[in-house]
Amino acid sequence: MSDEIRDVVIIGSGPAGYTAAIYLGRAGYRPLMIAGALTPGGQLVNTTEVENFPGFPDGVMGPDLMDAMLKQAEKFGTEIVYDDVVSVDFGGGDSADDDANAVKSVTVDGGDTYRARAVVVTTGSSYRKLGVPGEEEFSGRGVSYCATCDGFFFRNQPIVVVGGGDSAFEEALFLSRFGSSVTLVHRREEFRASKIMVDRARENEKISFATNAVVESVNGDDSGAQSVTLRDVVSGETRELPANGIFVAIGHTPCTGFLGGAVKLDEDGYIVVDGASTRTSVPGVFAAGDVVDRTYRQAISAAGMGCRAALDAQAYLTAE
Predict the structure, then answer these.
(1) 149 catalytic, yes or no?
(2) Catalytic residue status for 146
(3) What number does CATH give the domain 5-126+252-318?
(4) In the CATH scheme, what architecture does the domain 129-248 have?
(5) What are the record keywords, sorted (predicted)?
C-alpha cells in the first residue's frame, strides 16, 4: 500500500468516468482512474456507429468517442491504471465524524492498493446475454442490446426482440417505427410487463408474439444476421424466423460485486444515491452512470451524471 493519499480515485471509465475525470482534472485534483483491465471505455467500446451523441452530426464510432474522452481526461492530468478493482475499504472509526473523514482504500487485481479522500464509482452495468451460438459472432452486425442506439439501422427489415418485461416491450414499440416487422420472443406464455405495455404492443399492427419460445441460435453470413432459430419449450419443435436485427432485452447486471457491501445497494444491485445527487450512503463516495441508472442507460445521460459526480466530489473535498 502506498503512503500517498490522493484527492480522488475514479473506479471505472466510460462516459461517466471520463467526464468526471475531465471535470476533476480541470479543477486541479489530478484524479487517478482505475479504468479496468479488459474493457476500458465501457460498453461503447463494443459499439459501432453512435449517431445520437450531441456534437457529431455524421455520427462517431463508439471506440473513437471513448478514445477522445480518454485523451481529454489525460490532458487535464488524469492518471490511468488499467486494472480491475477487487475490493474496497470505505469505512472509518466508530463515530460518524470518523466515517465522514475516513481515507478510502481501493485494491486492484495486481495487488496494489490506492488511498484517496474521495471515490467516484462509474463501473456501469453489463447486458445479460442469451449465451447461444451466433450471439457473439453477430454482435454489432445484427445483435444489439440497445434499441435507441441501433434501431435506425434496421429500417424496413424484420426485427426480433427477446424478453418479456417492460424494457422488452418498450424496445419493441420503439423498434416498430423502423422495422418492417417486430416479433417479441418470450420463454413463457405470460409476460412480466405491465398490462398497459402489453396492451399497447398488442394494438400495434407491426408487433407479433412468439411465446413459450427461446432463441436457440442466431444465424447469418458475412453481411450480418439473417435469422434466429426458435425452440418451442412445450413441444420442443424448432423453426427459423427471419431477422436482421436481434435485440436482447433480458435485463442488466450492475457491476457492483467488488464493493462487498461497502455502500448501500438496491434489491437489484444498483448503487443507491441521495435524490438527484450522486452521493452514496458513505460520505465521500459518489456514483454515476449505469451503475446507478436503471432507466436511461445512454452515453449522454451517463456523461451528465459523471459531471454531477465530479461537482459533488469537489464540494465534499472543499468542505473537508
Answers:
(1) yes
(2) yes
(3) 3.50.50.60
(4) 3-Layer(bba) Sandwich (3.50)
(5) Disulfide bond, FAD, Flavoprotein, NADP, Oxidoreductase, Redox-active center
